[in-house]
Write a structure and sequence with these properties.
By secondary structure, the chain is of the alpha+beta class. Helix content is about 30%, strand content about 20%. The strands form 7 sheets. Strands 14, 15, 16, 19 and 20 form a 5-stranded antiparallel sheet that branches. A 4-stranded mixed sheet has the order 4-13-12-11, with no helix packed on it.
C-alpha cells in the first residue's frame, strides 16, 4: 500500500517540478513520516509539505489475521469409568476411552462388518479351528516404539490370566487351553504349565516364536481353537485384545489405568491428561496407521442430565446424550431440533434379579415382577418415547431376534397369580432396588416401584448410591445388588455375542448373576459351532426361549440413540454401536468447522 502511494506522489511531484521550472523557482518539498497509535492500532501517516500547503495521506493497514480457534470436540460422557483397563473393562463409558487410545487386529466399519485394522489380513483353516493374522508392517505405538505380534500375544494371554479376573475373560475360552488356565487359581502351582498350553503364538518371518517386543519381523499371530470358531476374527476387534504395554502396567501397578502416563496406545488418539471424575483430554496420534485426526477431544463427567443439557445450551459441550425428559423441549425448539440426532441403538435394558438372594431365588417371584412391569407405560411416561418396549433379549433387526418371544408381557392378573403361587406368598422378605444416584434416576425408580406396589402390593426400598460406585457393585458376585437395572449393548451383531458371551454358565456375567442352565448351554454351544446359518439361528433361538422361560431378567426397553450435536461438528457417521457419543465407531470421519464456532 505504501509503495503505491509513493509512486503516485512521485509522479505528481515530478510533474509539478517540470511546470515550476518554466515559471518560478522550485519551493522546498519536505516529506515527514509519522507513526501514531489510534485505539490500540498502529497507523502510518505520510505528510508531504511544501511552501504554502500541506498534503496528508494516511495508509490504512490491512486487518489483523483472526486468532485461530481450537478444533476441540467437547463431550459429556456422564459417569466417570470404574476402570479403564483393556482386559478388565466392560461398561460403555470405559470402552469409549479405550477405543480412542487403542485398536485391535480387526475393527467394525459403519455397516458393522469386520474389516482389517492392526492386522492387514487373516485366514482360517478349513475346519475353522485355526486362525492366523498377519500384522501390518511398521506399526507403531503413539510414542514411536514398535508394535508387533508379541504385544497382542501378551494382551490375549492377560485377558485369560486368572489373576486378571477380567470382565470378558470367558470370551476367549474357545482358544485351546484358555478355559483351563482361566478357571484355575492364580496361586496354582501348575499355573506356568497351564499358561504354556494356551495356543496363542506370536511368530516371526521364519515361523519361529518371537523373542521380544522389539522384533520387527514378528508379524504373525496364530490361534488354535478347541472347536470351530468361524466368528473369532470379530472377537479380535474387541477391547480385551487391545495391546496395552506390559511394562507400563507393571510400573503403574493396580491403578495404572488412572494415569495418562501409562496409556501408550495404537489408536487414533493419545490421552494427554486425565483428571479422575473431572476431565480427560485426548490429542491425535501422529503414528496411527490410518492417518491423523484434525481435532482434540475432551471428555467431561456430569452425571446430572439436566445440568449437562444446560451446559450444552450454553455452548459448553459439542455432543451430549439427549435425556428422555428433554426430548419434548428439544423438538419444540427451532435451533435444538435441528441438532438432535436419533437413530436405532443396539442395547437391551432389563431389571436384573440376583437369583441367590431371596425372594428372587424363586422363579415365580421373578415371573411376577416381569409380568407386573408396564414397559409401554415406562417408554411413554418415563422415557418420553426415547426407546421402545423390549420383550426379547436380542434387539429387533439383529440376527437372532425372535419375534414371538413375548412370554412375560405386562399382565397384572397373571403377575398376582404368580406371586401367590411362590414360596414367599404372604411372607415377602425385604426387596431393595439399588441404582446410580442422580435426580432423574430417583424419579424413574420412584415411578417403577409405585407401579409394582400397585400391581403386586410389594413395598420396595430404594438404595441410591454414587454412580461410579454403583458400576463397581454390579461387577462382583460378592457385591451384586438384589435388584437393579442394567443394559447389554452388543459388541458385534451376532446372537453368539448376545447369548454365549453373556449367558453361558462359564461366563463371568452369568456367574456374577448366579444364573446357570445346562440345557441352554448346550443350545448355545451348538449355535457357536454350527456352520449352517439356518441351523445356527435355530440353535440360538432355542437358547433364547429358555432364557425367557427362566425369567433371569425382566426385559424393559431397547434404546434409541439420542444425541445433541452442534452444527460445527461435521462428518458424524452413526451406527447402533454409538453408546458413548454420536460417531464414536470411527472418530476419524469427524471434523470441526472452526469458522462456525461462537
Amino acid at each position: 500500500m505504501r509503495s503505491k502511494l509513493f509512486a503516485v506522489l512521485s509522479l505528481l511531484i515530478v510533474a509539478s517540478m517540470v511546470l515550476a521550472a518554466c515559471q518560478t523557482p522550485t519551493p522546498e518539498v519536505k516529506e515527514v513520516v509519522k507513526t501514531v497509535v489510534v485505539e490500540n492500532k498502529v497507523v502510518e501517516t505520510v505528510v508531504v509539505e511544501k511552501a504554502g500547503e500541506t498534503t496528508v495521506i494516511t495508509a490504512t493497514p490491512a486487518p489483523a489475521a483472526p486468532v485461530a480457534k481450537e478444533a476441540l470436540l467437547r463431550i459429556n460422557l456422564g459417569t466417570y469409568p470404574d476402570i479403564i483397563d483393556p482386559q478388565k473393562s466392560s461398561f460403555v463409558n470405559e470402552i469409549g476411552h479405550l477405543k480412542l487410545m487403542y485398536e485391535g487386529l480387526t475393527r467394525l466399519n459403519d455397516k458393522l462388518e469386520t474389516i482389517p485394522a492392526a492386522a492387514e489380513k487373516w485366514e482360517y483353516s478349513a475346519d475353522a479351528t485355526e486362525l492366523t493374522f498377519t500384522l501390518r508392517k511398521d506399526l507403531k505405538y503413539s510414542d514411536g516404539t514398535i508394535l508387533n505380534a508379541k504385544r497382542f500375544e501378551y494382551s490375549i494371554l492377560r485377558n485369560i490370566d486368572p489373576a486378571t479376573a477380567g470382565e470378558y475373560g470367558s470370551i476367549t475360552d474357545e482358544i485351546v487351553g484358555a478355559a483351563e488356565w482361566r478357571g484355575s487359581s492364580p496361586d496354582d502351582a501348575a499355573g506356568a504349565d497351564l499358561k504354556a498350553a494356551v495356543e496363542v503364538r506370536a511368530l516371526d518371518a521364519a515361523g519361529q516364536p518371537c523373542k521380544d517386543y522389539e522384533q520387527a519381523d514378528c508379524l504373525t499371530l496364530k490361534l488354535k481353537f478347541r472347536q470351530p470358531a468361524p466368528y473369532f476374527h470379530t472377537v479380535m476387534s474387541l477391547w480385551v485384545t487391545f495391546p496395552a504395554k506390559e511394562e507400563n502396567i507393571a510400573e503403574g501397578g493396580d491403578n495404572w489405568w488412572n494415569s495418562s502416563k501409562f496409556h501408550t496406545g495404537n489408536g487414533p488418539f493419545v490421552l494427554e491428561s486425565l483428571e479422575p471424575f473431572v476431565r480427560a483430554y485426548f490429542v491425535p496420534n501422529a503414528n496411527y496407521w490410518r492417518g491423523q485426526a484434525t481435532y482434540n477431544i475432551e471428555f467431561r463427567y456430569i452425571n446430572d442430565a439436566a445440568v449437562s443439557f444446560e451446559a450444552y445450551k450454553n455452548n459448553e459441550f459439542d455432543i451430549i446424550g439427549a435425556g428422555a425428559e428433554d426430548i419434548a423441549t428439544i423438538k419444540a425448539d427451532a435451533v435444538l431440533s435441528k441438532e438432535l440426532m436419533q437413530y436405532a441403538g443396539g442395547c437391551t435394558y432389563a431389571v436384573y434379579f440376583t437369583a441367590t438372594k431371596p425372594p428372587f431365588d424363586d422363579p415365580k417371584v421373578r415371573q411376577a415382577f416381569a409380568q407386573a412391569l408396564d414397559r409401554e407405560g415406562w417408554v411413554k411416561d418415563v422415557l418420553k418415547g426415547n426407546g421402545s418396549p423390549a420383550h426379547t433379549w436380542v434387539v429387533p433387526g439383529c440376527p437372532g431376534y425372535v419375534a414371538e418371544d413375548n412370554k412375560w408381557g405386562y399382565n397384572p392378573e397373571e403377575a398376582k397369580k404368580a406371586l401367590a403361587e411362590s414360596k414367599y406368598a404372604g411372607n415377602m422378605p425385604e426387596v431393595v432396588a439399588t441404582f446410580g444416584d442422580t435426580p432423574r434416576n430417583r424419579t424413574r425408580w420412584e415411578w417403577l416401584v409405585a407401579k409394582w406396589k400397585e400391581v403386586l402390593g410389594v413395598d420396595i426400598k430404594l438404595n441410591p448410591v454414587e454412580p461410579t460406585t454403583f458400576t463397581a457393585l454390579t461387577k462382583e458376585k460378592e457385591t451384586i445388588p438384589q435388584m437393579f437395572i442394567l443394559g447389554w449393548c452388543m459388541d458385534y451383531p451376532d446372537p453368539q455375542n448376545w447369548l454365549s458371551v453373556y449367558w453361558m454358565s462359564t461366563s463371568s456375567y452369568a456367574q456374577r448373576y448366579s444364573f446357570s442352565n445346562a440345557e441352554m448351554d448346550e443350545w448355545m454351544k451348538k449355535g457357536d459351532t454350527e456352520s449352517d446359518p439356518v441351523k445356527r439361528m435355530e440353535n440360538y433361538k432355542q437358547a433364547q426361549l429358555i432364557l425367557s422361560d427362566q425369567a433371569a431378567v425382566a426385559y424393559m426397553w431397547n434404546n434409541l440413540n439420542s444425541y445433541l450435536v452442534k452444527p460445527w461438528v461435521k462428518g458424524v457417521v452413526t451406527t447402533p454401536q454409538d453408546s458413548d457419543f454420536a460417531g464414536s465407531n470411527d472418530p476419524l470421519t469427524i471434523t470441526i468447522d472452526t469458522t462456525m464456532l461462537p
